[in-house]
Design a protein that fits this description.
- It is globular and about 50 Å long.
- The longest helix has 33 residues, at 35-67.
- It has ten helices and no strands.
- The protein has helices spanning 3-17, 19-28, 35-67, 72-93, 106-118, 121-129, 131-134, 136-155, 157-166, 170-199.
- Helix 2 (19-28) crosses helix 9 and helix 3 crosses helix 6.
- With 200 residues, the chain is mostly helical.
- 36% of the residues are buried.
- It is 83% helix and 0% strand.
């Protein structure tokens, strides 16, 4: 396995998973859930996300092409729109997720924490398209390592969030992250359009 290629895939996937965004999400849930409940949410959401991404890694093209009759460029563009919207919300409101205090843990583990915040439009598109560029072994190792790093960061979101609050960096970073997420979404839309034009 090419180490340079592996790290290229790993850092590309880290950028799409966006662990910093997850810090803001988990930190915002501290008023509604205990530390133990947050760890449960993070652990279960990560396992769920890995399962979803592995499914798309193995049979993603078949699911899109044969089951739903979708071309990859349509999926890229649509997912880009969703990602752009999420980034715009973070940029505008200074928060990626708001939860009612009466919401149960089970109600947010799969949606929206696991899907679409971890296994979201960008990451699903990546696991379907990256093997053609990086190879299947490199892609799957990069995906698993990136999600494990994301898990570690999410489990320490309380400490990271408190530090950012003390430094008055939390809100500016949320909006900067929202801008980056929106830009990644726009890039995905453009990539989908480019792929569509190349198929004409």
């Amino acid at each position: 396995m090419d180490i340079k290629l592996f790290f290229s895939a790993f850092f590309a996937f880290i950028a799409l998973v966006n662990p910093i965004q997850k810090v803001f999400v988990v930190f915002s849930l501290r008023e509604s859930y205990s530390e133990a409940e947050l760890h449960h949410i993070v652990n279960k959401a990560t396992v769920t996300a890995i399962g979803v991404l592995l499914l798309f890694f193995l049979v993603g093209e078949a699911i899109l092409g044969y089951v739903f009759n979708l071309e990859i460029y349509a999926f890229q563009a649509t997912c880009g729109i969703v990602l752009f919207y999420n980034g715009f919300i973070g940029l505008q409101k200074g928060a990626f997720l708001t939860i009612d205090k009466n919401t149960r843990v089970e109600d947010i583990v799969a949606v929206p924490i696991a899907i679409p915040m971890i296994a979201g439009p960008a990451t699903i598109t990546a696991v379907v398209t990256m093997p053609s560029v990086y190879g299947r072994l490199t892609t799957i190792l990069a995906v698993i390592l990136a999600l494990l790093l994301n898990l570690i960061i999410m489990r320490n979101a309380g400490r990271i969030g408190k530090f950012l609050v003390r430094q008055n960096l939390l809100m500016p970073l949320i909006r900067i992250t929202g801008l980056i997420v929106a830009a990644i979404g726009l890039q995905m839309i453009m990539n989908g359009i480019k792929t569509f034009v190349s198929h004409l």
